[in-house]
Write a structure and sequence with these properties.
By secondary structure, the chain is an alpha+beta fold. The chain is 46% helix and 18% strand. It has a five-stranded mixed β-sheet.
C-alpha cells in the first residue's frame, strides 16, 4: 500500500471539502483518478488513482512508490511531465498500454503538476440510488443494471443470482422500457454516461 501524504491542497479552492470530494468520486465511478505532484513527489491522489498506481507497481518490481509507478506509465507513453502541467493519460494493465491523450503546459501556477489517469480496464458503474431515482427501477432491475455496467453477461448474472434466464430477460425487458433503450449495448452505454452522477 502506498503512503501518500494527506496534506491539505496547496491552494484550496472556494468549495467546501465535501464538494471537493464529490469530483474525485464522480471521476472514480467512470474509471478516472487524479494525482497532484510537486516535482517528483505525489502529494495527493484519489482512491482510483491509488488503485491504478498500485496495480501498476505490482506489474513492475522496483516501482513500489506512487511516483515510480506513475513514472513507468509516463515512460510507456513516451511522455514528460512539465512543472505546472495538467496531463491526461489513458492506461490499460490488461493490454500493457499507456497513452498521453492531452497535455496543457503552464496550466497551474502553484508549482504543482496534475495527472488525470483514465483506466481503460474499468467499467463505469452507476450508483443504485441514482438508477432508482432516475429511471424508477425496482431493486432487481437495479441489480441487473449494475451487473451489466460491470461487464457481466445475462447468463452469468442468472447463475450468480440463482435466477432463471427467463426472469433475467424479463428484468432486462423492463430496463429497456424504463430507460427508453432498445439494445443491451445501448443500455450499457447509457449506464456508463449516468455513472458520473452521485
Amino acid at each position: 500500500m502506498f503512503n501518500i501524504s494527506n496534506r491539505t491542497p496547496i491552494q484550496p479552492d472556494t468549495y467546501s471539502a465535501d464538494k471537493r470530494d464529490e469530483f474525485p468520486a464522480a471521476l472514480g465511478r467512470i474509471g478516472c483518478g487524479q494525482i497532484l505532484l510537486i516535482r517528483d513527489r505525489v502529494i495527493e491522489a484519489s482512491a482510483t488513482a491509488r488503485a491504478i498506481l498500485e496495480r501498476e507497481s505490482r506489474q513492475l518490481p522496483g516501482r513500489e512508490t506512487p511516483y515510480g509507478a506513475l513514472r513507468q506509465l509516463l515512460n510507456r507513453a513516451g511522455a514528460q511531465l512539465p512543472i505546472g502541467s495538467t496531463s491526461w493519460l489513458a492506461t490499460s494493465t490488461k493490454e500493457g498500454i499507456s497513452r498521453l491523450v492531452n497535455q496543457i503546459c503552464n496550466a497551474r501556477s502553484d508549482g504543482t503538476s496534475a495527472v488525470i489517469l483514465l483506466d481503460l480496464d474499468a467499467h463505469p458503474e452507476p450508483t443504485p440510488g441514482t438508477l432508482q431515482r432516475l429511471f424508477g427501477l425496482t431493486a432487481a432491475e437495479t441489480q441487473l443494471a449494475v451487473e451489466l455496467a460491470r461487464g457481466r453477461n445475462l447468463l452469468d448474472v442468472a447463475r450468480a443470482r440463482r435466477l432463471s434466464r427467463t426472469t433475467v430477460r424479463s428484468h432486462l425487458a423492463a430496463l429497456f422500457v424504463k430507460t427508453q433503450t432498445r439494445r443491451q449495448a445501448e443500455l450499457v452505454a447509457l449506464l456508463g454516461r449516468v455513472a458520473v452522477l452521485p
